[in-house]
Design goal:
The chain is mainly α. The chain contains seven helices and three strands; from the N terminus they run ααβββααααα. The chain has one domain (about 5-225). The protein has helices at about 5-30, 40-50, 80-85, 90-105, 110-140, 145-180, 185-225; strands spanning about 60-65, 70, 75-80. A three-stranded mixed beta sheet has the order 1-3-2.
């Protein structure tokens, strides 16, 4: 396999991932420093959105760690990192609303969310064994291990593909409901929320491109091994 093919399938996705992570970090750094005029915390915004949406069985909780924000459909908890839970910044409000978007999806039985949840066990297992499978396949030239690696990357690629509409839809819901409930009002607030959520979207795109690139790469390697 020539170097240009390797760069196209592995190098470019890596550069996209690094760029998307840099963009998220820079946007968060900017809008975390700008407080929302209403002074509401991310937790308060999340609770207001849930209440307004008639969702009374989801608990908003604080979690440790940076960027640990997520909605858990299994136990119906809206997990917000300390920066989001306690923060009153534009970034905190946007992230909290985004996670509420997932709770709304769950309430409405949004199909892509159900598909992604169903793939979680297989995705976790694939991620755990993938490094050993790929390294073993390359070092020992064992075609069956490369084939197993292809299967793992196929699962990861499918998971990341399904993740795209789930995350885009959650962000779209967040942007709409924040303005509808007058939780953001000024042009700066609207611009900030859009910037934060749009930057985060690129990380999901990068993850899908990386999984797809690795899948195609392993398919080409297996063809050459035969």
């Amino acid at each position: 396999m020539n170097i240009s093919t390797y760069f196209l399938l592995i190098g470019l996705p890596l550069l996209l991932a690094l760029w998307s992570q840099y963009r998220v970090t820079s946007v968060l750094n900017r809008y975390t420093k700008i407080a929302s005029p209403r002074g509401l915390t991310g937790a308060e915004v999340a609770q207001q959105i849930l209440d307004a949406s008639g969702i009374d069985d989801v608990t908003v909780i604080q979690t440790e760690g940076f960027m640990g924000d997520h909605y858990n459909p299994t136990n119906k908890t809206l997990n917000l990192s300390s920066a989001t839970f306690l923060g009153t910044s534009i970034a905190a409000i946007g992230i909290a609303a985004h996670e509420c978007g997932h709770a709304l999806q769950h309430q409405e039985h949004y199909l892509p969310l159900q598909w992604r949840s169903a793939l979680v066990p297989a995705t976790k297992f694939s991620s755990q064994i993938l490094p050993f499978v790929v390294l073993g396949g390359f070092f020992f030239h064992m075609t069956h291990l490369i084939t197993l690696g292809i299967a793992c990357y196929a699962i990861l690629m499918l998971f990341q593909l399904i993740t795209l509409p789930v995350e885009f839809d959650a962000s779209s819901r967040a942007k709409t409901i924040l303005q509808k409930m007058d939780l953001i009002q000024s042009p700066l607030e609207i611009q900030g929320v859009h910037a934060v959520l749009n930057a985060a979207a690129w990380t999901y795109i990068a993850a899908f491109v990386a999984a797809l690139g690795n899948l195609i790469y392993l398919l080409l390697v297996r063809r050459e091994e035969r």
